[in-house]
Amino acid sequence: MSESVSGSVMVENLSRFSINQMTVKQLSLPELVDACLELGVPGVGLWREPVQSYGVEATAKLIREAGLAVTTLCRGGFFTAIDPDERAKALDDNRAAIDEAATLGTDTLVLVSGGLPPGSKDLHGARERIADALAELGPYAAERGVRLAIEPLHPMFASDRCVVSTLAQALDLAERFPAEQVGVTVDTYHIWWDDQAPAQITRAGAGGRIHTFQLADWTTPLPEGVLTGRGQIGDGAIDMREWKGYVEAAGYTGPIEVELFNAGLWARDGREVLAETAARFVEHAA
Amino acid sequence: MSESVSGSVMVENLSRFSINQMTVKQLSLPELVDACLELGVPGVGLWREPVQSYGVEATAKLIREAGLAVTTLCRGGFFTAIDPDERAKALDDNRAAIDEAATLGTDTLVLVSGGLPPGSKDLHGARERIADALAELGPYAAERGVRLAIEPLHPMFASDRCVVSTLAQALDLAERFPAEQVGVTVDTYHIWWDDQAPAQITRAGAGGRIHTFQLADWTTPLPEGVLTGRGQIGDGAIDMREWKGYVEAAGYTGPIEVELFNAGLWARDGREVLAETAARFVEHAA
Q1: Measured in Å, how far apart are chain A's first and last C-alpha atoms?
Q2: Is A189 within 8 Å of A230 (Cβ atoms)?
Q3: How far is CA A273 from each of CA A31, A248, A264, B88, B142, rounded to the nearest angstrom?
Q4: How far is CA A148 from CA A25, A82, A154, B38, in A?
Q5: Which of A70, A172, A176, A221 is deepest in the core (most CB within 10 A)?
Q6: pLDDT, tens only, A62-99
Q7: Which pLDDT value is given to residue A12?
C-alpha cells in the first residue's frame, strides 16, 4: 500500500496512530495540528522544548481545541548525576515536566534515565540513583494523573544517555513502585534485537506497565553519534506487526506513536513526511 | 602508571597480554613480530586477510621462530545467508579458516556469525542457520585441534554483522555442541552494558566455554558506521579489572587480547600504539 491509500481507509486505520513531534520537528505546533487534522491523525506525542517555546498553556489550548490527544510528553529523566545540587536540579526539572504533562492533558511522561556521570564506570550505581529519583517523583506524578514511563534505550546509548538498556532492567526498576506511578516505554528501535524482550513485554503487560508503545525502524549504516539513525517504518530490519502483536497479546490497546529522529526526514517538507509516516503506519502496523 | 613503566615490571605484567593484529594494522607481520619481541609481548591474535597476504605457512614460521603464541585467528562466521550456494561457500570458507588456524598453531577461531540477509527481518531464523553451520563445522574444527568461539557482538551490529547480541544467546548456541567444538568469545566492548553478562560468564566458565577473552573500551561519540569506535583501554566507560575478575572467577586463566578498531590509533606509529596499549594493559588489567 502506498501514500495513495484512500482518505477514508486511511482515517479508519489511523485510529491508534500518534505522531511524535520530533518526527516532523520542522513543523511548528500550529502547522503540526493543521497537518494532523487534514490527514486524520488523532494523536501527537509532544516534546518539552518546542512546547515551552510556544507556551505550555497555549499548546494545551491549541491541541484541545483541535480535538487531538496528547499521547505522551517527552521527556523527563537524566537522574544519574552524583552531585547533590545537580540531583536536586534534575528532580525540580522533572517535577516541572510532570506539571507540564498534566497541563497538556497527557497521562504519560517518557523518561530517558541518563548515562554515566563523567569519569564513572559504575552502571549499577547509576541505576540505583534512578530508583532513588523515581521514589521521589512517582507519588508527585500520580497525584497529578501522570505516569512515568521508563524507556530502555538501545545499549549503544548506555554510557552517554541511558544506563537502562533492556526492558528487563526497566521493569526491575519500575516494579519497585506502583504501576500507576511507574511503567515502561516499549519502543521497537531500542529492543528489537533482544530475544528476551517478548517475554518482558508479557511481564510488563501483566503488571499494567506498558505506558506507551513507540515505533521506529532499524536501518544501517548508523550516522556519527548514532542519535539520528532512527529509520522510517518499513525501511529497516524490524517486523512492526510482530512487535505490535506482542504488546497486544500483553493487553495493550492504546496509541501507537511513531518517533523518528532522522536528518533525512527533517530535511524534507514536514507535511509530506507526516503523510508518508501515516501511510507507512497503515501499511506496516495498522 | 604511565608508558614509563620499567621494562622488567612490564614484561612480568605482560605475561597474559596478547595484541590483536587489527589494533596495529599499520604494522606488517614482520614489524609486528619485531615490536612484540622488543616490548616483551608474548602473544598475538591474527586476522585472516593479512595472514593470507603474507602467506599462511610463512606467517606460521615467522611467529613460531619468534617464540610468540597465536592466541586466536579472526575470523570465521557469516553463516546467516539463506541462498544454498552462498551457504555452501560460507562453509567452505570456514573450513579454510579452520585449516589456517591449525597451521598457525592457534586453538581458537573467533566467529562473527553474520547479520540479517538483505530484506529479512527474521532474527530467530538467522540464529538457527548459525546452529546448522556449527553442526557442520564443529567436528571438522575439533579434529584439527581448533575450537570455534562465537562472539556476541554489541546489539548495534545485530542487523548487518551479527545476530548473536548477548553472551546468553551465544551460549544457547554453543551449548548445543561439545565445548571442545564450540565456545564463546568474551569481549568487554560488546557486553559491558549487559547486567546479565556476569552470570553468563559464570555459565560459560562452568562449561569450559570461555575460549578467548578480549578487551576494548567504550567511548563516545561513536563514529559513522560505528565499527571503528573501539576505545583504547582506560579511555572509556568499562572497568577492565571488574570484567577480568568475572572471567577469572569463572576459571579462565588464558591470554587476554586487546583488539581495537580505531581510526585514530591506525593513523599513528604502530610501535608507539603497541607500547601504549601494553602500558594501558598493565595499568588497567594486569
Answers
A1: 12
A2: yes
A3: 13, 27, 10, 43, 55
A4: 23, 22, 19, 58
A5: A70
A6: 999 999 999 999 999 999 999 999 999 999 999 999 99
A7: 74
- Enumerate the H helices of B147-235 as residue ranges: 167-174, 188-191, 197-206
A208-219 per-position pLDDT tens digit: 999 999 999 999
CB B121 within 8 A of CB A238: yes
- Mean pLDDT across the stretch A173-188? 98
pLDDT at A2 over 50: no
How much is the average pLDDT of B15-39? 98
Instruction: Give the pLDDT score at B1.
Output: 39
The C-alpha cell 594486569 sits at: B286
CB contact under 8 A, B165 and A193: yes
Among A276, A207, A204, A279, which Cα is nearest to A243's? Answer: A204
**pLDDT tens digit sequence for A111-155:** 999 999 999 999 999 999 999 999 999 999 999 999 999 999 999
Angle between helices B123-143 and B84-104 (to 10 degrees): 40
What is the SS3 assignment for A145? Answer: coil
> pLDDT-based confidence at A7, cuts 50/70/90?
low
How far apart CA B21 and CA B29 sit, in angstroms, is 9
C-alpha cell of residue A251: 493487553
* A118 neighbourhood in chain B, CB within 8 Å: none
Beta bridge partners of B262: B229
CB–CB of A90/A81 below 8 Å?
A: yes
Whether B107 and B212 have beta carbons less than 8 Å apart is answered as no
Place of cell 612480568: B12
Between A124, A169, A193, which is nearest B158 by CB? A193
The answer, yes or no, to whether residue B8 has pLDDT greater than 90, is no
pLDDT digits (tens, 9 = 90+) for A225-265: 999 999 999 999 999 999 999 999 999 999 999 999 999 99
Q: Which residue has the cell 572467577?
A: B249
Separation between Cα atoms, residue B27 and residue B56, nearest integer Å: 17
Whole-number Å distance between alpha carbons of A271 and A217: 20
Q: What is the 3-state secondary structure (H, E, C) of B52-101?
A: HHHCHHHHHHHHHHHCCEEEEEEEEECCCCCCHHHHHHHHHHHHHHHHHH
Query: Which pLDDT does position A49 carry in this prediction?
Result: 98
Q: SS3 breakdown of chain A: % helix, strand, coil, rounded to 5?
A: 50, 15, 35
Please report residues of A whose CB lies closer than 8 A to that of B166. Answer: 194-195
Cα–Cα–Cα angle for B158, B159, B161, rounded to 5 degrees: 70
CA distances from B50 to B19, B61, B101 (A): 15, 15, 13
Of A159, A192, A226, nearest to B237 by CB-CB distance is A159
Nearest to B225 among A122, A221, A236 (CB): A221
Please report residues of B whose CB lies closer than 8 A to that of A122: 239
